[in-house]
Write a structure and sequence with these properties.
InterPro entries: FxsA. This protein is mainly alpha-helical. The protein has a domain of 93 residues. It is elongated, with a radius of gyration of 26 Å. Helices cover 71% and strands 3% of the residues. Strand 1 and strand 2 form a beta hairpin.
Length: 180
């Protein structure tokens, strides 16, 4: 593990343990760490079984269940790491209300990144296939910089008409011969 991660982790956890020790005493801080460790791992096991039961009963979508199981496993890992900060972060991933929020946030970010990647990949492939010439998106032709070839943006009616008449052949490698 790189020192860039290990040193801040050790520093933060040492400061957290020092703070808790000052608050409740060193012995009780150690007892709390041990209790959080075993309690957190048991809670993770209970949550994983609950997710599996919901999935078997059809009350949860497979994608959501996979995300929840991954987050619970990550939370269990956080609980297993020594220290109060990682334990609290792990417990937040294990309990259902915060896990749902984290899953939704991660799903939104993943969806956005995939959309951006898909758009960049399509533009790259289209530009290479056309040899740098304007790229045709059905009846709409755009220049290399993304501006409309005729200087105007397509209207909503043009887009609606294009979407009604689209065919799989419109996405062939011959960009420009399928303009309608």
């Amino acid at each position: 593990m790189p020192l860039v991660v290990v040193i801040p982790y050790l520093l933060i956890e040492a400061l957290a343990f020092y703070g808790v020790s000052k608050l409740i005493g060193t012995g009780w801080a150690l007892v709390a760490l041990i209790a959080f460790f075993f309690g957190g791992l048991m809670l993770a096991a209970v949550e994983m079984r609950s997710i599996a039961r919901k999935l078997q009963a059809g009350r949860e979508k497979p994608g959501a269940a996979a995300g929840d199981l991954g987050l619970v496993a990550t939370g269990a890992f956080g609980v297993a790491l020594p220290g109060f900060v990682t334990t609290i972060a792990g417990l937040l991933l294990i309990i259902a209300p915060t896990r749902v929020l984290v899953r939704q946030l991660l799903a939104r970010q993943l969806r956005r990144r995939l959309e951006e990647f898909g758009g960049r990949a399509f533009e790259t492939v289209s530009m290479r296939a056309s040899g740098g010439a304007p790229v045709s998106y059905g009846t709409f032709v755009i220049n290399e910089d993304g501006s409309p070839a005729d200087g105007s943006a397509p209207s909503d009616e043009d887009i609606s008409q294009w979407s009604r008449t689209i065919t799989p052949e419109d996405f062939g490698t011959d960009t420009g011969s399928n303009d309608k």
